[in-house]
Design the sequence.
């Protein structure tokens, strides 16, 4: 890569760049998760939480191993396990290991953005779940304030113009995390269609 390109960076801030780069993947994931389970019934909500737990567990492990201080979001799998237990379900087997090869600039930032940014979507899902479940369904995961706190802190890192290397690494990692979630959601969607 030319040195000039490395120094130039992006026209957008990193958050706008990541949102644009993963918009199609997010739409596919949203659709697949609604098809695989949704949250209209208590059973659906339990399957939604199982998918979230299975998908997040290896990414949390990856971030534990690779993220520097300040870029490792709070773990949410214990909250999801708590909600599942309240619904009478054990935590599922984690998805196979998540990896993006040799770790480089921006990778932890991109993976952290996906997990933390999903707390924004969770806020709108929480409103629906509270209404549908009449306030009786467990919502430790969807109502997690610690992740929203992490998100606020992360904003100062991602609402800036990054260098090219960091932007490319963050985009690769974010894309890989979305692909990881999507693979599981599509598997669950197929299982649901067969059932
Ligand atoms: C049915 C599932 C999902 C729905 C309905 C949904 C919905 C949403 C909504 C409404 C927003 C915009 C929120 C706002 O701007 O206030 C959002 C943002 C986002 N969601 Fe999701 N989401 C879903 C699943 C996921 C999952 C599983 C992930 C992570 C793997 C994820 C990652 C993100 C990210 C990274 C953002 C953007 C953060 C930013 O603005 O920088 N979403 N989602």
Sequence:
């Amino acid at each position: 890569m030319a040195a000039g390109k490395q120094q130039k960076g992006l026209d957008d801030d990193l958050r706008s760049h990541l949102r644009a780069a993963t918009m199609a993947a997010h739409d596919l994931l949203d659709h697949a998760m609604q098809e695989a389970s949704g949250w209209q019934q208590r059973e659906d909500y339990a399957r939604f939480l199982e998918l979230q737990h299975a998908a997040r567990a290896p990414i949390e492990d990856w971030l534990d191993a690779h993220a520097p201080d300040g870029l490792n979001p709070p773990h949410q799998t214990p909250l999801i396990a708590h909600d599942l237990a309240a619904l009478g379900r054990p935590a599922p087997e984690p998805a196979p290991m998540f990896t993006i090869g040799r770790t480089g600039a921006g990778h932890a930032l991109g993976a952290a953005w996906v997990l933390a940014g999903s707390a924004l979507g969770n806020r709108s899902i929480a409103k629906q779940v509270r209404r549908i479940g009449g306030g009786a369904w467990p919502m430790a995961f969807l109502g997690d304030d610690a992740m929203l706190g992490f998100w606020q802190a992360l904003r100062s890192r991602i609402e800036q113009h990054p260098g090219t290397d960091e932007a490319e690494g963050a985009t690769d990692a974010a894309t890989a995390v979305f692909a990881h979630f999507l693979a599981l959601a599509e598997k669950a969607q197929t299982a649901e269609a067969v059932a």
Q: What stands out?
A: Residues 15, 19, 26, 29-30, 33-34, 113-114, 117-118, 120-121, 124-125, 177-178, 181 surround protoporphyrin IX containing FE (CB under 6 Å).
